[in-house]
Amino acid sequence: MRKLCVVELLSARRVLSFRPHRMEEASKLVAAISRSSSHEGVRLKPILGTFANAVVCRAAFGKPLKLVALLDDAMVTDSLLDEVINDHMAKRRTNSTAKATDGDQTTEDLVDVLLNLQKNMYVQDMFLAGTDTTTRTIEWAMAEMMKNPSAMQKAQTEARSVFSDNVTEEGLHELEYLDAVIKETLRLHPPGPFLIPRESREEANVGGFDIPVRSQVLVNVWAIGRDPRYWNEADKFSPERFLNSTTDYRGAHFQFLPFGAGRRMCPGIQFGMVVVQLALANLLFHFDWKLPNEMKPEDLDLTEEFSDNALKMRETLLLIPVARRIGSP
Ligand code: HEM
């Protein structure tokens, strides 16, 4: 099933096919921030959540669903998902959009794919794994850049020199500094601080502790990402450490495992990274950002809180966006 999803939904070809949806949702994100701009500031998390929800849902279900209802209430979730599946079945019966209306197979969504294969259960898992992780990564990256204005300035200057009128996905690969910002954010604040539990297949001794065979093993990637044996000034936010470095998050460098490693590694890396890059590039390109109440960067509270295997920001990020006139530096 995992293999199926990787090939059918999260492969490079599929991720590329969802580009028009992502671009549309990115424009809505910019418009929503512009609308809610005020002197008191904007709470970024709900707006980012709506964006990530829409992008993941449009890929998975063909349309946006209500995020809060999905996450908070299992019964509502079931009935919403039933509705989505029934919708798709009805469309198939009337033979209108079993495949995409334009006849292009690549615009099928996950529900179409799973209905083709008669495997409906996986839909909800995919949704939950994809939305919260991306939202939190974007929020943490913004928070760290607000606390470290020189990083914000470098990322902004880069975005504004790569793009002229608008952000396009084709140009995202040129944002090297932003890529380093995202890596550094994932090192310090991995959205899943513990990987999926593993079971040891043989006896081992780790750090002086005997681990019997068949023990449940939890890998704490948060602690590994801050271990001074592997990272200089481990608690410092310094995207520069990833510039000209070969360390990446694809599971081969065990000091940096935000997406896990091995057979259970996150299959949504490509999907997740493009969503995070696209959102951040838009936030940096279209807005200047200020802290409310004349707060100084060093006073921004980035205390982490751990619950439900997620690292959350204790204080929700509140920022003032100042829309930029395109063409100005
Ligand atoms: C910044 C974004 C994301 C991060 C940091 C992240 C991180 C992770 C991690 C750490 C795991 C566990 C891996 C392990 O134990 O080795 C995981 C599993 C998973 N992720 Fe992601 N993820 C992200 C985005 C996504 C997206 C966008 C999707 C799908 C749309 C997705 C789908 C999944 C699924 C289905 C699993 C379970 C895999 C399994 O059970 O074998 N993730 N993710």
TrEMBL record:
Keywords: Heme, Iron, Membrane, Metal-binding, Monooxygenase, Oxidoreductase, Transmembrane, Transmembrane helix. It holds the Pfam family p450. GO terms for cellular component: membrane. Heme binds at C266. It is found in: Membrane. Coiled coil: none annotated. Its cofactor is heme. It is a single-pass membrane protein. One of its GO terms (molecular function) is oxidoreductase activity, acting on paired donors, with incorporation or reduction of molecular oxygen. Belongs to the cytochrome P450 family. This is Cytochrome P450.
